[in-house]
Amino acid sequence: MSLTLILSVIFLAGGLFFFTTATIGLLRFPDFFSRLHATGKGDTLAVLLSLIGLGFYEGISLTSLKIVFIAVFMFLAQPTATHAISRAGLRSGLKPWMKEEKKG
Amino acid sequence: MNEFLFSIGIGLCILVFFVLYRVVYGPGVFNRIAALSAIGTKTLIILLIIGFLYNRVEMFIDISLVYALLNLIGTLAAAKYLEMEGVKQ
Prior knowledge:
The structure holds 2 protein chains of 2 kinds. Chain A is mostly helical. Chain A has 4 helices and no strands. In chain A, 41% of the residues are buried. Chain B contains 3 helices and no strands. The radius of gyration of chain B is 16 Å and the shape is elongated.
């Protein structure tokens, strides 16, 4: 086994792990903003790790250059989309979740 | 290595089905849009893995790039539309 193959396996497994944690957060957290808190950051990191792993598996070529381009684009686009959707939710009147004793 | 990529793809497909619960039953439209964006990012990686499995990655990489662009545009358009005044949720 070569070194790039081992690195690719490690990065892909890390990507799948962070996708799993982001999905658990999206399913289990109590309100909209905390769900975005889980899935925005977790998915960004997971996409980045998975693309780096696939780039190591491919080697140096035009395809891996495009993979790096997708990684840079996702690193810019994913926080932008998360920010836009959370601002839309806040301005249209969704209330953030609080503990019970702070509500009254 | 092909078996490893196959198992990663199967795991991502199972995660997509879990997120689909939030799309179908999520309270309100914002939860549904956030879950759709999460499904789009998972689909991008699944497309790349399909390309590696079929040895046609130079074709699938362009599809994946377009998918990333359309996912961003769709989420931004939905957010801008729901932010306008007078739109019923």
